[in-house]
Amino acid sequence: MMIPGTIYLIINNYIPMAGLVLAFKKFNYQFGMWKSPWNGFSNFKFLFMGSDAFNMIRNTIVYNIVFIVLGTILAIAVAIFLNAVPGNKSKKTYQTIILIPYLISIVIVSYIGFAFMSQESGFINNSLLKDNPVSWYTTPSVWPFILVFIHLWKSFGYNSIIYYATIIGIDPSLFEAAEIDGASKWRQVLHITLPSLKTTIITLTLLSIGRIFYSDFGLFYQVPMNSGPLIDVTNTIDTYVYRALLTLNDVGRSSAAGFLQSILGFVIVWLTNFVVKKVDKENALF
Amino acid sequence: MKKTSKIIALLLALVMCIGMLAGCGKSGDDSKGNDTPNTPSQGGETEGDTPEKETDVSKMPVVKFMGAAAGLYDNLDKVQAKLNEILAERYGIQCELHFEGFGSYTQQLNLMLTTAGEVDVFYVGGGPTTFVNNGMIYDITDLWENNASDEFKAMFPEAYIDANRVGGRLYAIPANVNFSNEILVHANKSMMDQMEIVPDDEKIWTLDEIHDLVVQAKETFPDIYGIAPQSKGTLVNQLNWESLGDPYNIGVVPDRGASRKVISITDCEEYIEFSKTMNQWYNEGLIMQDVLSTTESWSTLVPSGRAFCDFDAGAYPNGTTTEDSKFYNLTLYPNWSAANCAVRLGWGIAGNTKNPEAAFTLLQATYMDEDICNLLSYGIEGENYIVDENGKANFPEGVTLENDTWTLGFVAGWALPNFMGALPQYSSVDGHYDMIRAYDASAEQSGCMGVVFDSSNVADQYTACINAYNKYYAAILAGTLETETAIAQYKAELEASGEAEVIAEKQAQIDAKYGN
Prior knowledge:
In chain A, 66% of the residues lie in helices and 0% in strands. Chain A has 286 residues and is mainly alpha-helical.
């Protein structure tokens, strides 16, 4: 039974790992991956140069933490509400509706955003802020909120369905017993639903933490329309690497960035799992 | 269960090691004899130099050609078949054509170049230096010396060929296009006609005159944008400062490179003054307010009449505006040849090509064989184009730019090796190519002609500076930020990113060619 899955993992996840050596090489297309000369850690240097190095690492981590915390709270809340909706038909309708944003391509999302925020023809400036139009694409201070909003809008449907699947698996007799004992809906959520979701929350959060040094390229590059004045708040490791190496075709430096992201992600997952293990051994991932 | 997991974990680790070793083996096969791969065979000692002319098509070497396309190339199979007929008969080679849109060209090319034999002849945008640093391009010095015909060698001035040398070795041939550009404003022709303004072709316009013109246009046509961006997110790319082909302008030489002294863009008087003027125009509402975030550029906005005008750099000799033109060209600064004019568009051979001689034969044919130039530009005669009564390429009956299946030459011939070797197209004035050559001959030459910046010695500082560039350069030049404050911030960030070292390196490269 495991064979197809294992083969898939080997081909897609293990064999390409050999490519990690590129992070330590000055890649030459004629010599190929193995014969290109080694150059130690010098490919990593560019990630820590300049005034923006701190900025992009901070942005990547802080945005991800906000996404994980708010995303989890929103997804669980929606899953609980979804469970409370009476009737199968309306449940399915809501499920489909909340899933739609997840299925929209980020490029389309960026144009929807532009339709709202364009300075000359955008909905907000033309209908809501007629007298005091805002130049959205040159005002960095509003973008942390816009990016968080768009991310949550796009992802909450998918995540809430995962939590919803767990909620419907909870033994109904627990809720019935609580109701007989006079527990309010809120008490039921607090003492039955949330504890039952604990394992799922831990697993999903650990998986998200593993990717805390990565970012959704489309969200941070396409949605702000790559506008220069916004870079301070929209620059993440991925967009920085893309912009810096766009014309240099530098395989070594790109690999170094990817290598660093995975190593740091691995260390953080390992540490978080270590803490989970200390607190609650049952729920640790490994 | 635990034991099984451990066994699987061990197996996976083992497979990873095997994967690495397997990779080693493959690489060895691919790069056989490639330890000094960039040295072509020396004069007459290889079998490639004295070939018996092969008559069996199946035994002819196949050269893979990769170009960047802005037009349509749906009729690829027929064009390739026709091309192979000519190649087999005249050159004893065969060819596989491959085109990729400009948006995905670089990515696709990089992927193809990682495997030997996937591509032989390719379009080199922006000069060969990066390709040389990454070992992607073949040293064609000896092929050029020994295999190029005298006519081919005479096609370009020696200085233009030299600009494509890195470390004294030649890596690319410039595309046969214009080598000088003027900085100008395209103004929508029909709006100008409605305002009853007929510009004098020879007039040099001032920014104040352009300002008044845009104000008049905005008053006459209140619903249009005044000035559209030159390219996506950029009001104007560059004016009269010399950047040595560096698209990020980290360190420039003002006044068309005259002083040969590199300074920071934030100290460049022209950059500062122009930005201040644009800031004033932006606040007056003359410039499209979404200039930084719009995904459209002048080429769609101005001809369609949604914007009145735009800044651009291009080759527009006097007398080339015709009845069919959609815009007038108002010259701001007369044409000049930048240091990188001969390397902006070029053609080279892949570093891991298996048959450099055959690749060079194809490269030469795409420049020198008129039938091949026509075929690559306009496709199949009678189907994709006809030769009209003026001897120009035109569309056959019922065929238009929208439904033609091969429009590379009609849309962006400059992306081909030698579109000026093909027929002129129907909309051009008589003698257009001669006018371009005369225009180039009259151009002011950059003081740093032929110096193309190689960033490899300061790559870390350069990449850090690019980040500051992305943040400020276009936004300041488009007038969207308060100029003095933004330039001060730009300056501080460039300095913190190691701009001084990039400037010193640029200066050293100029000094190496021209002395102190």
